[in-house]
Amino acid sequence: MIERKIEEIKKSLPMGVELVAVSKFQPKESIERAYAVGQRIFGESRPQELAEKYQALPKDIEWHFIGHLQTNKVKTIIPFVSLIHSIDSVRLAEAVSAEALRVGRVVDVLLQVHIACEETKQGFSVDEIVQIIEQKQFNSLCGMRIAGLMGMATYTDNSEQIEREFRKLSELQAKYGFRLLSMGMSEDYLIAIACGSNMVRIGSSIFGSRY
Length: 211
Ligand SMILES: *Cc1c(COP(=O)(O)O)cnc(C)c1O
What we know:
The chain is α/β, with parallel strands linked by helices. It has helices at 2-12, 28-36, 47-56, 74-77, 90-102, 126-134, 159-176, 189-194, 204-207; strands at 18-22, 41-44, 62-65, 83-87, 107-113, 144-151, 180-182, 199-202.
């Protein structure tokens, strides 16, 4: 089932769109099944869980951190994480950069942008992103490299609203010429791709429900 789902989803992705298989709360066996059919990028949202899976699973897996990251958990993942999708505050950016420098790395990150109308979703506002980039606010943070932007649309059936939110992020990405645009989850990834996403984060459509 997992194997077939991965293959189906991969076939539906245009060239140049990367699949992050979101394996949070899933057992290692499920990740191994996805790995066996060629999946190499996995997304996790808890530092401890990510560290344990990193230890136990093949070393050519690219581990992406996709959830809210507390500054006091940064050191758990910095030695091995490939991409952090969820830089959502100045304080977190500073902590990530400092820890990366401490262990002798430069870590690729995405800035998370708040595009949904829900209060609960994390991220910088569009205006804050403009300010960070144009005033080169993060240029002194030599331990991290801003590779792009990430966003989550409102959880709604209204596909026009989702599209509007994704377009807003896509325009911001184009304006600054970032390489990566991480948007789209199980329920909305086709809309996200139509709006220019080149990295989709898909969990439940591959692994089934987490609960
Ligand atoms: C859990 C999660 C996903 C995957 O969601 P699904 O609906 O299961 O595909 C994607 N992105 C983030 C940030 C998540 O926390």
